[in-house]
Amino acid sequence: ETEIILVDKNVNKEETYSQAVEILRNEGLVAFPTETVYGLGADATNPQAVEKIFEAKGRPADNPLIVHVDSKESALEWVQNVPDKALQCMDAFWPGALTLIMKSKPDAFAENVTAGLSTVGIRVPNHPVALNLLRRVKLPIAAPSANTSGKPSPTRAEHVYHDMEGIIPLILDGGATAIGIESTVLDMTCEPPVILRPGNITKEDLEQVIGTVRLSSDIQGNAPKSPGMKYMHYAPEAPVYLIENDQALVEKAIEHVQKDGKKVAVLSTVEFPLADYYFRLSAETLYDSLRKCDRTDVDLILATVSPAPKRNVAMMNRLEKAADHKWFS
Ligand code: TXA
Ligand code: MG
């Protein structure tokens, strides 16, 4: 009962979107690709529609959703007291993988979109399917990642189908997503602005445009301002352990696990033939690899960690969560 429409060459055709538009305008859910991960969309102005997102994902109600719109102009219809720096970010990074937290207008969105907060996270996704859909539906679309809560975010339509089969009516299949991890979340309601969730757009990228920004992880003694960050995320079924990317150390760990009669998978930038399973580690393939582990008989997953180049901050953040910060020893 879950239909999949393969978009492919029909990306600019009207028929590709007519069913999705119809469903979204009638309180239904549609999964669609963005450049980061697949989103599970609903009309952000309709509380019954939004409630279906929480039910489909099994998502805690105190975790607010990101609202997707087709342009800066559309975004500005829904927010107030927008600081200049937010406008500069919109001009520099939209469409793109940057979610801006701003003050929403009173009664703009269904209350369950923002989990009762007076602020809202908004972005314009940089994906032709998402943009075509948003332009046609002419509604702000609340869309968290289209996975079951706690599972790795979906980077392919088949991941969405795995989690949402029989639960949602329609998936638009736009192929594998380019970035593979969720957008950077930047809180514009404080000064300097704070990165609540690292993503492909880095602190350095942002600072070139708006000057100093802070990382929430660097701020001591602060209650988590991004409610979602307190939940464990992205975890496959077998436990994930972090390990320093040192060949001898990793090989010793593999042998140690195998000696107990257990199967081990290694996620790394270099191959480990000793391991029962090997998956190449990159931001683009991280979630796909974690999901592939679930389809094996692996007992334990080792993820190798190298001193992180700046672009890797976001991937490391997701990997640490998948491992629940456990190191192999
Ligand atoms: O790349 C993405 O952002 C994907 C695609 C589908 O666009 N969406 C996504 O949404 O990752 P979601 O709902 O899985 O993540 C939303 C994040 C959570 O960490 C949530 O706590 C935070 O954004 N967030 C949303 N609204 C917020 C608000 N008003 N204040 C603080 N954090 C907020
Ligand atoms: Mg998510």
Describe this protein's structure.
Belongs to the SUA5 family. The protein has 329 residues and is α/β, with parallel strands linked by helices. 29% of the residues lie in helices and 20% in strands. The chain has helices spanning 15-25, 47-57, 72-76, 84-93, 128-137, 157-164, 203-210, 247-259, 286-294, 313-322, and strands at 3-6, 30-32, 39-43, 66-68, 79-80, 98-104, 119-123, 141-142, 170-173, 184-187, 194-197, 214-215, 240-244, 264-268, 277-280, 300-305. The strands form 2 sheets. Strands 1, 2, 3, 4, 5, 6, 7, 8, 9, 10, 11 and 12 form a 12-stranded mixed sheet that branches. Strands 13-16-14-15 form a 4-stranded parallel sheet, with helices on both faces. The mean pLDDT is 94. The structure holds threonylcarbamoyladenylate (TXA) and magnesium ion. Magnesium ion (MG) binds next to loops.
